[in-house]
Amino acid sequence: MARLVMKFGGTSVADMDRIRNVARHVKREVDAGHDVAVVVSAMSGKTNELVAWCREASPLHDAREYDAVVSSGENVTAGLLAITLQGMGVQARSWQGWQLPMLTDNAHGSARILDLDGSELVKRFKERKEVAVIAGFQGVNKETNRITTLGRGGSDTSAVAVAAAIGAERCDIYTDVDGVYTTGPRVVPKARRMDKIAFEEMLELASLGAKVMPVRCDESEIMEQQVVTGIAFSKDEAQISIRRVEDKPGVAAAIFGPLAENNINVDMIVQNVSADGKTTDLTFTVPAADYERARATIEKAKGKIGFDRIDGATDVSKVSVIGIGMRSHAGVAAQAFGALSEKSINIRAITTSEIKFSVLIDAAYTELAVRTLHSLYGLDKA
Ligand code: ADP
Ligand code: ASP
Ligand code: MG
């Protein structure tokens, strides 16, 4: 007998048939004598629809209300799964983030989990073998008493937090792929499934857009054969360029300070060397969902910053190349720049770190860029 967390993503709960299928799967574990906490995502496509509605309501929407809206998809699937389980004679109860409560900070849209007390769930396992059906992706901020969400794909994070809180032996992430691939298999049919991946690489892959979570990460063995392990891509970013920013001390603080205060995460940053010693261009990326808010924030601080105008683009994507082998190999990124330029793909911004680099390109070229780099680094399956 074990304690388990079973997490089902959007594709697994996409309609009533699949929810019934999930319920049968859960029942099997309950019948085997296990205590089960289930974490569910919204039906696939639902969160995108909710996000689009927020934008339609107002491009500059209040982040607290965005969370109130987009968290609702998970409420539906958690309730439906609980009803379905009950119909099969399984004791089950749904839990929304505020009911657990899954306590988070108040960074709406990308909140971090602060605390989760699993004792009530454990008590119910013991007293009545009750399955906990938890709405993923959502939490609550204690100070403001407001619903928060954990960022796109956040129900994987919810599942891991629940597993820790109830002391689960296992946390199984069910999805529509059978493992972690060298890149998204829908984009690159030649992607290969990995037998193992270093923990650090998996963290990078996941945070850079590869949606799947690891089944097993391996830190003990160093994989020397391959310099590059995987390619990730994300279309959820937007580019903002501030033109002719005054080149003076404190200007970066004047720009990035207000963005941070508004909980807008800045990712890539590129600053040109100023040609005349007076002004320079500054480019950075923010999550696409925060694009309008970021522009408005900068516009508001214009007096303090001093610049000519803001340009921006939302039809961009970030392609990242990951591999711990980069630590000991030079020129890995340079190869990519060459290969992309051969395909006439323009690079708008670049960032690098010890085990990865990312390029920002036009979204229309995402698939071509990913396939090109996947072949370039010898990742295609034979
Ligand atoms: P779920 O709804 O189950 O959470 P997601 O859509 O969030 O599913 O994540 C699974 C999808 O992630 C797969 O369908 C696959 O196309 C995509 N994906 C992107 N990068 C990778 C990768 N490196 N390995 C495996 N799948 C990936
Ligand atoms: N439903 C949310 C999303 O689509 C969370 C998740 O599926 O993990 O981002
Ligand atoms: Mg997911």
Protein described:
By secondary structure, the protein is α/β, with parallel strands linked by helices. The protein has helices at 16-31, 46-57, 63-70, 72-87, 119-128, 155-166, 199-207, 251-261, 291-300, 302-305, 332-342, 366-376; strands spanning 3-8, 35-40, 92-95, 102-104, 113-116, 131-135, 138-141, 146-149, 170-174, 230-234, 237-246, 269-271, 279-287, 309-313, 316-322, 349-353, 356-362. The strands form four sheets. The protein has a five-stranded parallel sheet with strand order 3-6-2-1-9, with helices on both faces. A hairpin with an 8-residue loop joins strand 4 (102-104) and strand 5. Helix 1 (16-31) packs across helix 4 (72-87). The radius of gyration is 22 Å and the shape is globular. The two termini are 42 Å apart. It binds adenosine-5'-diphosphate, aspartic acid and magnesium ion (MG). The site of magnesium ion has 4 residues, from loops.
Strand content: 15-25%
What pattern of helices and strands is seen along the backbone?
EHEHHHEEEHEEEHEHEEHEEHHEEHEEH
Biggest beta-sheet profile = 5 strands, parallel
Q: State the secondary-structure class.
A: alpha/beta
* Rg of Cα set: 22 Å
Task: Bin the helical content.
Answer: 25-40%
**How does the overall form come out from the CA principal axes?**
globular
The strands making up the biggest β-sheet line up spatially as 3-6-2-1-9
Counted beta strands: 17
Integer average pLDDT: 92
- Hetero ligands: adenosine-5'-diphosphate, aspartic acid, magnesium ion
Number of helical segments? Answer: 12
Give the end-to-end Cα distance, rounded to a whole number of Å: 42 Å
